[in-house]
Write a structure and sequence with these properties.
Elements lengths: L1 H29 L5 H14 L7 H5 L12 H21 L5 H17 L6 H32 L7 H38 L10 H17 L2 H9 L6 H20 L6 H16 L6 H30 L4 H5 L10
Amino acid sequence: MLLFLIVLVLCNAFFNGYRDSSSILAGVMASRAMRPRWALYLVAAADLIAPFIFGSAVARSITTGLVNTSVITLNTIVIAMIAAVSWNLFSWWRGIPSSSTHSLIGGLVGATLITSGPQTIIINGLVFVILPLIFAPIVGLVLGFVVMNILLASFSTAHPRVNKLFRRLQVVTMLTLALSNSSNDTQKSMGVITLGLVLAGRLPSFDIPFWVLIACSLTLALGASRGDWRQIRNLGGKIYRIRPLNALASQTASSLLIIAASAFGMPVSTPHVVSTTLMGSGAAERINKVRWHVASEMVTTWALTIPATMVIAALIFMTITGVHDLGLIFNGLVPTVVTP
């Protein structure tokens, strides 16, 4: 069961890197700042080294800070990861702009509710996790707007050749964004595997082993090196026609926001942050430049992810146990130790 959990988490980390690299590269590709394959390799390298630089605050907040680990079992975490991976595969197949972070949280909350009841959820921890996911895109929109206005004011009289400088600077901001993304996302996978080790009795306390750090960072980097080109085209062209200055503003704003969130242990979604900073940078030039109907469709799919994975987790549990009465489950009349 523990080995199965590790495989599931690493699969989720691969998809995380695969899809998030598209968000990191969308502006770079749209403004043609560098060759696509080299850009992917640089992002993968940044994803690989970031976990060795930053701490583990996010890993703790998304696991031990979210659920009562003295009550849940290893089976709960396995069900959560099956739900998260299932939704990620479905959203990729259907081309839905989803988030691995949202699916992971939805899976954890849904599996914990259905196996151990609502009293197992740490309310303060849930608020600490959910609020950043709600407000980070809003802050990203505002920050992208502000950074773009600063750049517009600074280069208002510049010659069009200044776009060459913007393209070169995007290599730096792209790497910074990749580092910040990995600093937040790799910790989520490390946290789940470490929690699984604790629940399986392989670790006495929540201390992330070095091999877990290496495994998660390698898997995320491998996923990033592949790149979801369909998502790159969606972000790079559907919201509006991105100029080099838009991409530079978006990457700068996204990096600042994600690094700040990681420092405080707040999980955020890189695709959501990048998308809204792009919207903000476009709106700074002209409000109607942004295709807001596309933006609203993206927000709708984002909002569906957590409820969808919660439902999937519940369906998995009820299928395994053969019990469909939620009242029995929440009253503790159904065994929670099950074997998928």
